[in-house]
């Protein structure tokens, strides 16, 4: 069942919300209450709710400030309940992924429909969170598909020569144009054959190979990242960072911290 937390400073409204709907019919259960934003933060940490019915105007800490301070707000869906038809409140609330904004007194039918939409939002957030949790850690990053290495030997001689060239000269400023005269073939033909054989473009393969080499160096912890970037062929450090993050979804410093902690 979906866990509901009510954060509302007026006792009579909190009690009314508990019995306003048949929560079990919506596959929901009210797991807790809070009378202000301070208590709300405590209850969120304790109960891990799926949906929060949140008043805006409360003592000690209002609803918007509570959301601003909540580090886990991406894991639940919020329905704002307010007696103030105030655009500024609504605008601020939208900054914190608020699902709905309802005016008091709350219409049971409107709340029921809002809850249904919130449940859909919760399901989406949970799926995203699961996916995010399953993302690889630095020790599992595989920038260059190993299958490529298993099959390129069976491809054309030109592809073999292009990969060998990358392996030998990756630390230099190179491009596919450097191979035109050497192989006696045009760039269009070479690009096509390379993509067919490896599934990568020449530049994509080159950058992946460079990043793979950078990772190997970072794991040793023997050199500074700025030096590694230059050694693997990136004269522009900012560009190196961008390419590294593109292929690994991490920053080089994440690898440094991760493998440093393993030592």
How is the biggest beta sheet arranged?
A: 5 strands, parallel
Query: Would you tell me which CATH topology of the largest domain applies?
Result: Rossmann fold
What percentage of the residues does DSSP assign to strands (E)?
Answer: 5-15%
The H/E string reads EHEHEHEHEHHHHHHHHH
Instruction: Assign the CATH class of the largest domain.
Output: Alpha Beta
Structural class by helix and strand composition: alpha/beta
Which residues sit in consecutive blocks of at least 5 with pLDDT less than 50? none
Structural commentary:
The structure is a single chain. The chain is α/β, with parallel strands linked by helices and 263 residues long. The chain folds into two domains: 132 residues, Response regulator (Rossmann fold), CATH 3.40.50.2300; 125 residues, Orthogonal Bundle (Arc Repressor Mutant, subunit A). Helix content is 56%, strand content 11%. It is built from 13 helices and five strands. Strands 2-1-3-4-5 form a five-stranded parallel beta sheet, sandwiched between helices. The longest helix has 26 residues. The protein starts with a strand and ends with a helix. It is found in: Cytoplasm. One of its GO terms (cellular component) is cytoplasm. GO terms for molecular function: DNA-binding transcription factor activity; sequence-specific DNA binding.
